[in-house]
Amino acid sequence: MDIKFNEKEKQFHLFNSKISYVIGICLDGEIGQLYFGKRINENQVVLDYQSAGLRPLCCNVKEEENYTKELALLEYPAFGNGDFRDPAYEILQANGSRVTNLIFSGYRIYDSKETIPGLPATYTNTDDEAKTLEIICRDEVAGIEATLYYTIWRDYPVVCRHTRIKNIGVEEFKIEKALSCNLDIPDINYELMHFEGAWGRERTPITRDVSHGIASVESMRGHSSANYNPFVIMKRKNTDEFKGEAMGFSLVYSGNFTVMTQADTFGKLRFNMGINPKWFSWPLAPQECFDTPEVIITYTQDGLNDLSQNLHKLMNNNLVRSCYKNKPRPILLNNWEATEMDFTEEKILKIAKKGKEAGVELFVLDDGWFGARNDDHAGLGDWVVNTDKLPEGITGLSKKINDMGLKFGLWIEPEMTNEDSDMYRAHPDWVLAAPNRKRTLGRHQMVLDYSKPEVVDNLYDQLYKVISTASIDYIKWDMNRSITECFSQNHDAKEQGTIYHKYILGVYSLYERLKAAFPNILFESCASGGARFDAGMLYYAPQAWTSDDTDGYERVKIQYGTSFGYPIASMGSHVSASPNLQTGRSMKIKDRANIAYFGTFGYELDLNEISEEDFAEVKEQIKFMKENRELFQYGTIYRLQSPFEHNIASWMVVSEDKKKAILTTYKKENVPNMGIEKVKLAGLNPDYQYTINSKAQMYGDYLMEAGISMSEKNKFWFESDGDHSSRIYVLEA
Ligand code: GLA
After folding, report:
1. Residue 620: which residues within 8 A CB-CB, separation 6 or more?
2. What does the angle CA 359 – CA 365 – CA 369 come to, to the nearest 5 degrees?
3. What's the rounded Cα separation, in Å, for the pair 499 and 281?
4. Which of 32, 322, 629, 727 is packed most tightly, with the most Cβ within 10 A?
5. What secondary structure does DSSP assign to 85-137, as a single string?
6. What is the DSSP letter of 430?
């Protein structure tokens, strides 16, 4: 890994063993994109770039110059100077002009990388893991300095980018758009893969052609959302899980975002990503700086599994910040689906006790323990224990749970308040609400104005009191509605365009403070399930509740989609009761567990209420998970068959030394008299002989090339496992 600057040709070449990223300085001094892809020789000068001849209707920098921005590939394109595609930034100057032009003025190259003030970002553990290039550009007329940051990683085919904008003039200006990255690509033969959904059905992979006009996904909900995710893939049409070219882009941010591809009519493609510029307007006074979030860009020629695996490794090693980083996650039991808010201490202790008997390690008390929280109309904002339900408080309950030999975890939703709460009665101006307008409620609650430091301080003080006076090992931080009427009361008009972003900065700052005060707590983020599952959150909370949908079959699809961009260890996944609360579907406890293993694993039901037979199975499941959780959570995942394309979905995890692997298959529907379906395995050592479920023995090459049969041998068809059945195969070399 290195970064070289060719002074004569004015080209920067960032490279490691797998990729090259080449940047040049265009004729007028703007920063150009020369190459991004498989590693090329770092001494190669990239030729024939940015020269396109004089063409009708194209505007040239100088009338006689053989250079027009319209045909250039650019790194951080401006508005108003001959490039008619969507710019990466827009700055409204005091005189009303939006025309800008950032010209190269210097650079720095150094080991490791710097943090981004107030924002989550990837980091190095040792300085030699990465190298950073800063390219400093200036627009002297508008008084803008922009620093483009590029970090190349030693161990991954990854470049991380973000941008800092500084006001170096004498007048305030307004940043109306400041994306994290722009990548101009020399051809348009790509597909955009993004991950869409809604509550209960998060992150379905969708593939779209991008060869004409604009394709875009975004969130304007104030959080990254269940609807679209700030992780996307640009892939070649023939790229599949095992071969072909693809680039992944993951925005390390949890608020409103945009992703856009723009094919122009000259056969070039612009890709950009960052904070959504809609209703964003950031006044920047002289000498002030604004930092965009970071975007992780990865490249592969070896298909989508390789792309995901590289991202997972980077996130596990260089994004997640927790004492649970790369550690097995505790098996938990959460009371939400068992009791909702209707519980007493006695009931909770009974549930926890049964969990302990089964082998659970952590008991989590969910919503309903505080204020007047007996249903979802009241209590949010009042983080004081409800002693009617818990007479000895969280202090007493956590001690009793600890005395059983269990860790104790607690649910909070610190970004919200209800009209029926002491907090709202005392501080009606602490909620986001537009003047003289009706507030739109969501789950009967309002969003607190985290752009106000006093609000964040208040929440910190309240939560500090609860956590520091009890024994708390885990926090589930929930967020159950999107932002509407995004207006900060008693704030200047000109500040209103900053609120969505300041809200997220406020959330990050509270995380930062709580993590500093309680470094041993394991945080799990949640937003009505997986509505804020993004790389920004993972920096603070190494795991996230993947979905409120705990139906075993639906979870196959949700966890499959999530695995494209996020590590297995980050996916909160529990076994819940059958019939399932969200879908009404009944599934065997074995099949519910077979999907939950591929994640943090836990239970979300009252184990006192299941049959003795199922309880015996739960004990076995927990034992099995304890024996294998490092492999489940940190093994290399190979997606083999998609639940969206096959009746039998399948994936597997493989240990680093390839001596152990776990394969799973999930059948959607039983087909009577089914033909023979085979699943081909991946990632094994072809020369190892593997014992499968302590029975059959097969070589790795046979398993990968011929595959194993999914037919239900030795069974009459009417004895089949039925719909939504699954299997687990443990392979040991
Ligand atoms: C959200 C979460 C659930 C649960 C409830 C509690 O819906 O996603 O897991 O915590 O809130 O109100």
Report:
1. none
2. 160
3. 9
4. 32
5. S--SEEEE-TTS------EEEEEEEEES---BTTB-----SSGGGEEEEEEEE
6. G
Pocket test for ligand 1, best of 528, 576, 581 (most atoms within 8 A of CB): 528
Report which of 632, 633, 666, 596 is spatially closest to residue 334, judged by C-alpha positions.
596
For residue 334, the cross-strand partners are 364
**Rounded Cα gap, residues 27 and 163, in angstroms:** 22
- How much distance in Å is there from the Cα of 199 to the middle of ligand 1? 11
- Ligand 1 centroid to residue 445 C-alpha, Å: 13
- In angstroms, what is the span from residue 413 Cα to ligand 1's centroid? 9
Residue 382 makes CB contacts below 8 A (sequence gap 6+) with 370, 371, 372, 373, 421, 422, 423
Query: Which residues, in sequence order, are CB contacts of 435 under 8 Å at separation 6+?
Result: 487, 489
Q: What distance in Å separates the CA atoms of residue 292 and residue 294, rounded to the nearest whole number?
A: 6
- Contact in structure between 504 and 516 (CB atoms under 8 Å): no
Measured in whole angstroms, how far is the alpha carbon of residue 329 from the centre of its chain? 18
Cα–chain-centroid distance for residue 237?
25
Q: Does pTM surpass 0.90?
A: yes
Best mutation site among 526, 549, 581, 603 for ligand 1, i.e. most ligand atoms within 8 A of its Cβ? 526
With a cut of 70, list the residues of the chain below it in pLDDT: 48-52, 712-720
DSSP 385: B
Q: Which residues contact 62 (CB under 8 A, 6 or more apart)?
A: none
Element (H, E) at 506: helix 499-517
